[in-house]
Automatic annotation (TrEMBL), chain A:
One cellular component (GO) term of this entry: negative cofactor 2 complex
UniProt keyword annotations, A-Z: Nucleus
GO molecular function: protein heterodimerization activity; RNA polymerase II general transcription initiation factor activity; TBP-class protein binding
GO biological process, one term: RNA polymerase II preinitiation complex assembly
Region described as Disordered: spans on this chain: 101-120
Top-level division of the source organism's lineage: Eukaryota
Compositional bias per record (Basic and acidic residues), positions renumbered to this chain: 101-111
Residues annotated as domain Transcription factor CBF/NF-Y/archaeal histone: 13-79
Protein name, UniProt field: NCT transcriptional regulatory complex subunit B
Organism for this UniProt entry: Lojkania enalia
Complex formation: Forms the NCT transcriptional regulatory complex with nctA and mot1.
InterPro entries given in the database record: CBFA_NFYB_domain, Histone-fold, Ncb2
From TrEMBL, chain B:
Keywords: Nucleus
One MF annotation (Gene Ontology) recorded for this entry: core promoter sequence-specific DNA binding
Record protein name field: NCT transcriptional regulatory complex subunit A
Positions of the Transcription factor CBF/NF-Y/archaeal histone domain: 4-67
Compartments (UniProt record): Nucleus
Length: 142, 101
């Protein structure tokens, strides 16, 4: 699957509807203020330029470290280099959340694999547990 | 802000640069956050420029003003360069004579 073969220039832009929604969210506290359509389109160009700028810088930083993959660290360094250091705390938070999500996803998968049972067996076991819990509950003195 | 940018699209834009090779899975997610902050900053400033000119409609010239006034946005000067400047005191009207269409 080659991402570069998908469609023409349109795919190297951001969806107008999504950008429009974000603009509305940003201007929530200022009802009545609207962005003209061409202003929104110009903003999209600026956004793409921003992504390109950060990517290019992050790529250079990665190359200097002889790394072939652009990692979060490189993006962080790029932001600092390009005078966007104020964005760093937020992106580090996002990166930490993402890693946590990945870890818990992997942990769940490993636990299922380690039980050595098939899904059917696990479901059966769960039903047994429920049944015995219900029995205990019903048998308990009122 | 609850609306999210499409992460796959961001990755595609990053890799449109031939020099850029592989990108870790978390990277476009992080760039997406940076982009969100960038947009908040630029949109807010452009809206402020519109307000300063008594306009409820944020026009391209307001965006240009926001870009020009902040050093952080120097890299955008070429993109906004094609937009005409409006004199500060003038009220905004439709039909600014843009050639973008």
């Amino acid at each position: 699957m080659s991402d570069r073969e998908f469609g023409g220039n349109d795919d190297l832009s951001l969806p107008k509807a999504t950008v429009g929604k974000i603009i509305s969210e940003i201007l929530q506290s200022d009802p009545g203020v609207t962005f003209a359509k061409d202003t929104r389109d110009l903003l999209i160009e600026c956004c793409v330029e921003f992504i390109t700028l950060i990517s290019s810088e992050a790529n250079e930083i990665a190359e200097k470290e002889a790394k072939k993959t652009i990692a979060c660290e490189h993006v962080k360094a790029a932001l600092e280099e390009l005078d966007f250091g104020n964005y760093v705390p937020a992106i580090l938070e996002v990166a930490a959340d993402y890693k946590k999500q990945q870890a818990s996803r992997e942990k769940k998968q490993t636990k299922i694999e380690q039980s050595g049972m098939t899904e059917e067996e696990l479901i059966r076991q769960q039903q047994e547990l429920f049944r015995s819990a219900t029995d205990k509950f019903n048998a308990a003195p009122q | 802000i609850s609306t999210k940018f499409p992460v796959a699209r961001i990755k595609r834009i990053m890799q449109a640069d031939d020099d850029v090779g592989k990108v870790a899975q978390v990277t476009p997610v992080v760039v997406s956050k940076a982009l969100e902050l960038f947009m908040i900053s630029l949109v807010t400033k452009a809206a402020a420029e519109a307000k300063a000119r008594n306009s409820k409609r944020v026009a391209t010239t307001h965006l240009k003003q926001a870009v020009t006034k902040d050093e952080q946005f120097d890299f955008l000067s070429e993109i906004v360069g094609k937009i005409a400047d409006a004199p500060a005191a003038q009220k905004e009207e439709d039909g600014e004579g843009r050639k973008r269409k």
